[in-house]
Amino acid sequence: MKIRQLVWLRRTLQALFLIFFLFLVIESRLPQDVYIDYTMAFSADQDLRLDQPVTFFFQLDPLVGVSSLLSGYRLVKGFLWGAGILILTILLGRVFCGFICPFGTIHHAIGNLNPALKGKRMIEANCKSASQKVKYFVLILLLVGAAFGLNAAGLMDPIALLFRSIALAVLPALGAGLRSIFEAMAASDIKILNLASYGAEVLVSPIFGYSQPAYQTAWLIGLIFLVILFLNRIRPRFWCRTLCPLGALLGIFSRMSILNLEKYAEKCTSCNLCIKHCQGAASPRPDQEWETAECLMCFNCFDVCPEDALAFRFAWRPQRNHKPDIGKRAMLGGLAAGISLPLFARLDGRIEKVSDPRLIRPPGSLPEKDFLEICQRCGLCMKICPTNVINPTLAEAGIAGFWTPRLIMTQGYCEYTCTLCGSVCPTGAIRETTAQEKIERPIRIGSAYLDRGRCLPWSGNAPCIVCQEVCPTSPKAIYLKEDTVMTSGAQSLNVQLPFVDLKRCVGCGICENKCPVRGLPAIRTIAAGESRSLSNQILL
Amino acid sequence: MSFDKPVTRRESIKKLLKLWASLGAAGGALSLTLQTPLLAASASENKKFIIEGVGHTEGYSIKTLTRMVFESAGGAGRFVSRGDVVVIKPNLSWARRPEMAATTNPEVLEAVIELCQEAGAKKVRIADHTIHDATRCFALSGAAAIAKKTGADLVHPRASLMKKMSLKGNRLGIWPVFVPLVEADALINLPVAKHHSLSTLTIGMKNWIGGVGGSRYSLHQDINQSIVDLANFFKPTVTLIDAIRIMTKNGPSGGSTAYVTEKNTLILSDDPVAGDASAALLFNSQPQNLGFIRMAREQGLGTFDFQTLARQKVVL
C-alpha cells in the first residue's frame, strides 16, 4: 500500500467513526415518530425500544469489559467486540487509538487544525516525556480498584467520558443556545424571522428535543470536557498520551505487535519531521528506540519522512517490542491508590448502613453493591429517559457513586410502562426488564409519603386529588377518604384526603412530579421500599 | 400569530376576507347537505343536535359506526369546509394500551381523520397536551400509528406552542393555551368517556384541561368551575364522545381491563353539555348530579333537556 493512501484511510475511518459515535449519541432518545401498530396485536404488551445500536462503542471498548469483569465478575453484553479490539491490538498495536476512538479523533483534529506550537517547540513537545507514565498509574489504579470493588473506570474511560460530556453537557448547551436564538427570533417584529423560528424549531427538535433537558452538575461535566480539550494546546493529544487509561491498556497489549516501525538510520538526515508530526510521542526518529506502547499508529512519521528512512512492516517472526515504560512509581502508586481508594470509599457506610433516602435508582437497577461494581457513569440512561428524571449524582451515592444515575422526581418521574433505561445500559447495571415484569412483579424503586402540613386538603386549604389521579398502579396506591376539614375562617370544607398504600406504591414519583404544591411537594418519594434491596424496606 | 397583541389593520382585513370565504363555503355546504332530514330540521330551526350511534351486531366496524353517525348529522362537510385546517383534540393523556380505555379509541380517531380529509380539509392535526410523556402516549395509545397511516400531523405539545391568553372565565384568567387548538379552522373534540376521582366523570368538557399548560394541576382546587371556564373558552365545531369502551373505575388513568365496560356507543353533538350529559347516562349518573354539567347549563353553555334538541339514534 502506498504511504499516502494509508494516512487517508486513517483519516476517513476516523471521520466515519466519529460521525457514527455522534449519530448514536443523538439517536439515544425515543424517536418522536415511534409507534406501535395495534392493528396486528391489539392487546399484547409491547415495549418501546430503539432501532440503533447505541451501546456499540461501549462494547468495542475493552476497558468497559475488563473493569466489569474484575469488579463484578460479569461479562458485559457484546464483550466479544472488546476482545476483538484487544486481539487487533496484539497484532497491530494501538490502531484503536489512531483509527477508531472518537475522543482521540477530536483531539487529533483540534491539534491538526490549529497547532498550538510551531517548529522547534513542537518537536520538543513531541519528545517522549515522563508524564506519559501517568496513564499507567491511572490504569493500574482503576483496575486494582475495580478488583477491590470500586469500579470508577467510567470516570476516565474515553468512551464513557465522551458520551457523558456530549450527551449531558455539549448537546443540551447547544440546544439551549439555539433555543434562545429562536426565542429572540419569535419575539422580533420582523415577520420572516417569526416564521423562520417555527421552521427552525421543527428542524432542531429531533436532535435537541422539544423541551430543554436538565442535568444536575452538567456544568461540571462540560467544564472538565473543555479543560481536557484545552490540554491539546500544551501538547498534541495530551489526553491520549498522558491520561487515557484505555490507551495505557492497549499500550500494554501492543507489546507483541507484529506491525513494526522499521528504521533505516543510514538514510536519516535528522530533520525531525517525523517527531514534529508524531501523535503519540513514540520516538519515531531512526536513532531512537521506537515506543510501541506509545505509538498511536497514525502513520504520520511514515508519511512525512522525505528520505524514506521509516517504514511500517509486518515482522512475522516472534519478537518483543520495546517494553511499555510504566515505571516503578506508576506501578506502586497505582497499586497503593487502587487498594486504598476502594477501602476509603466504604468508610461512609453507604452500602451497608446509611443509604441516602434521595438515592432512587432507575427501575431494574442491581442491588447497590453490584450496581456500583459495573455502572460506567456514561449517562446513557440519563440521555434516553423520556421524562428527564434520571440525573447524575453528586454526593447522594457517596464518593464511590459519583455521577451514577439517580431519579429527581421534581424534574421528571419514572413512567409506569417505560423500560428504556434498562434496555440500553451498556453493562447491565440497570437490568433489561419488560413493562409486564415492571408492573406485575412489581419493580419498586421507592415509596411515596405525604407531608400533611403542606397537602392542600389535609391543611384545610383546598380540595385536591392530583396525586391520586395520576397514580398509575391499579388499584391506585393513593386512596382517598371523604372528610370535612376546617379552613382558616373556621368554615368546614368537604375534601377527599389522600393516603398512601405502601403495599401498592412502586415509587414512580409521578405524584411528587405533578403535585400542585410547588417548591417542596406535599407528597414526596424516597428510596425506602425499593425492591432491589433486602434491607431498605418499610413493610414486613 | 400572537394572541396577546392588538390586531393590526392588515390582519383584520385578512380575517374579514377569511370569514367571507368561510361563509361562502358554509353556505355551499349547507345547500349540499339539506337533503338529510336531521340537518334540515336542526339547521332550519337553528336547533342543536345530538346523535347517538350504537353498535349492536357482533363484530361491527367501529369505523363504519363513526361514519354513520356523521352521515346522520349531514356529513363531515357540515363541520369541515374545503381547505380547512382541522384540529382534532382526542384524550391521549396516558401512555396506555387502547383497550384500557384511558385514551380515545384509535379506530374512531382514524375514521374521523378520514372523514375530515374526504370533506376537503387542507390539513388534519391531532393535538393534545398529555399528562404522561407525549411521545409515549402517542405511541402506546395508537394515535401515532393512525397519524402515520392517515398522514395527519401529530402536534407534540411543547413550551413554544403555549401562549398566554385570557380565558375570561369566572375563575380562570390569564393562562397558557395550547396554540394549535385556537388556530384551527375547525376544532373537533374527541374525548373518551371515563371515570374520574374528583369530577366523577371526564368526558368532553373536561377534555379541555389537555388544551392548557402552566400549573394546570391546581385546576383541581375548583374543578367544576375550571371545567366550565375551559369549555366556555374552547368552542369546538363539534364533539364526538367515544364510549365504545368506557372506564368505570380507577380513573382517569385506569390500568386494567377489569375496569372497562363495552358500551359500543358514540355520541355526536354540537352542544357540549348535552353530549356530556348523554354520556353520563351510560355510567348511570344523572347529569344534574354532576357539578360541571349542572354549572355549565346554569352558565349557558348548553342544555341536557334532550327534548329541545334534534335527536337521533343510529344502530349498526
Q: What is shown here, in short?
A:
Chain A is mainly alpha-helical. Chain A has helices at 3-27, 56-60, 62-72, 79-92, 95-100, 102-113, 119-125, 134-147, 153-156, 158-187, 191-208, 218-230, 238-243, 245-253, 273-277, 300-304, 328-345, 368-374, 380-384, 420-424, 435-440, 466-470, 510-514; strands at 259-263, 310-314, 390-392, 405-407, 447-450, 478-486, 492-500, 523-526.
Q: What features would you highlight for this structure?
A:
heterodimer; A: 540 residues; two-stranded antiparallel sheet; 8 strands; elongated; B: ten-stranded mixed beta sheet; 10 helices; disordered N terminus
Computed CA radius of gyration of chain B, to the nearest angstrom: 18 Å
Termini gap of chain A = 71 Å
* N/C terminus separation of chain B: 44 Å
Q: Low-confidence stretches of chain B at least 5 residues in length (pLDDT < 50)?
A: 1-6, 24-36
What is the count of helical runs of chain A?
23
Sheet with the most strands: spatial strand order of chain A: 1-2
Shape of chain A: elongated
| Largest sheet features of chain B | 10 strands, mixed
Helix/sheet category of chain B: alpha/beta
Strand element count of chain A: 8
Q: How would you classify the helix and strand content of chain A by structural class?
A: mainly alpha
Q: What's the story with the biggest beta sheet of chain A?
A: 2 strands, antiparallel
